[in-house]
Amino acid sequence: MSVPPPDPPRYGTGALADLPPSVLAALGVPDAVNVLGLPALPRACVLLVDGLGWEQLRAHPDEAPFLNAMDGRPITAGFPATTVTSLGSLATGLPPGGHGLLGVQVAVPGTGRLLNCLRWRDDSVDPREFQPAPTVYERAAADGVEVAYVALGQYRGTGLSRATARGADYLGAESLGQLVGRAEEALRRGARSFVTAYHADLDSTGHRFGVASADWRHHLRFVDVLAQQIAAVLPAGSALYVTADHGMVDPSERVDADTVPGLRDGVALLGGDARARYVYTEPGAQADVLAAWADVLGDRAWVVSRDEAVEGGWFGPLDPGMAERVGDVIAVPRADLAIVASEREPWLERMVGMHGSLVPAELLIPLLSTSRP
Question: What's the predicted TM-score (pTM) here?
Answer without folding.
Answer: 0.97
